[in-house]
Structure formats: structure tokens, C-alpha cells
Design a protein that fits this description.
By secondary structure, the protein is mainly α. The protein is 47% helix and 6% strand. It has a two-stranded antiparallel ribbon with strand order 1-2.
């Protein structure tokens, strides 16, 4: 699995909003400047995050964006799935039940199921609060 630029930037944007959670609505230009991501690119990410119910938007003079829930309630999985879609390592696992005609005889399906479980468990176990509280970049998460 490879996370695209959209997924990476979505997570950075949401982490920035988490770091400024108590400051109300945050202007996109402020996020853009702090994260060194073009405002135009962030504008393309917002619809995915809005559709997933992760952002609240306020238009006008004091407008901007804020998290729809507390940073402790939004997981890395929530954000990455909103930007990327399914996290399934192979396309046949995107449907439940699995509709692949080779599902019952596939010798590799258990490998992909295990990988999918590890990905889901790992990303579900990290919240935006965890990301912003981590502090030292050397304190990496390990599986």
C-alpha cells in the first residue's frame, strides 16, 4: 500500500487543525503557510474530509475550518480512508462478503487478510491527539 500525496497532506492538515483545536476556525492560508502546502491543493482535499464528517466549515470574515470532533476521537485511519478510499491491499477485499470467484481457493488470501488487519489495527490505534502529542520525531511508532 502506498499513501498518495492527498492522503499525506490530509493527515498533515488535520494534525495542524488538531494542534490549533481550541482556537476556533482556522483560515486555510494559515494551515498552508504552517504546513508548506499550497492553498490550492488544500482546497482540493477539503471535500473529501467534509464528506467524511471530519471537518466543520464556517464561511465569511472569521471563517475557516476546524475538526468536527476532538483530536482524540479522529484516527489516522479516518483521515487516510477519507482521502484514499479503501485501505484494502488488494481490490478483491474491498467488498464484504468477498465476491472474488477465486476467494475460496486463493492460496494468498490469508496473507492479504492479515496485512489488511495489521493496517487497520495500526491506523485505528493512532489518533490526531497522539500525532500532535508525540513531540520528538525520533519517537516513531512501531509494529
Amino acid at each position: 500500500m502506498k499513501i498518495s500525496t492527498r492522503g499525506r497532506y490530509s493527515l498533515r492538515m488535520m494534525a495542524d487543525l488538531a494542534a490549533h483545536y481550541n482556537e476556533g476556525y482556522i483560515a486555510l492560508k494559515d494551515i498552508s503557510e504552517r504546513q508548506n502546502i499550497s492553498k490550492k491543493y488544500l482546497e482540493q482535499i477539503i471535500p473529501f474530509l467534509n464528506r467524511s464528517g471530519l471537518l466543520t466549515t464556517n464561511r465569511g470574515h472569521m471563517g475557516g475550518y476546524k475538526l468536527a470532533k476532538s483530536p482524540a476521537e479522529i484516527t489516522a485511519k479516518d483521515v487516510i480512508e477519507s482521502a484514499e478510499g479503501s485501505l484494502a491491499p488488494v481490490s478483491c477485499m474491498e467488498n464484504t462478503p468477498n465476491e472474488c470467484p477465486n476467494y475460496t481457493s486463493c492460496p494468498t488470501i490469508s496473507l492479504y487478510q492479515g496485512l489488511y488487519k495489521v493496517i487497520n489495527d495500526y491506523l485505528s490505534g493512532i489518533t490526531l491527539q497522539d500525532i500532535i502529542s508525540r513531540g520528538n520525531p525520533a519517537d516513531n511508532y512501531c509494529i
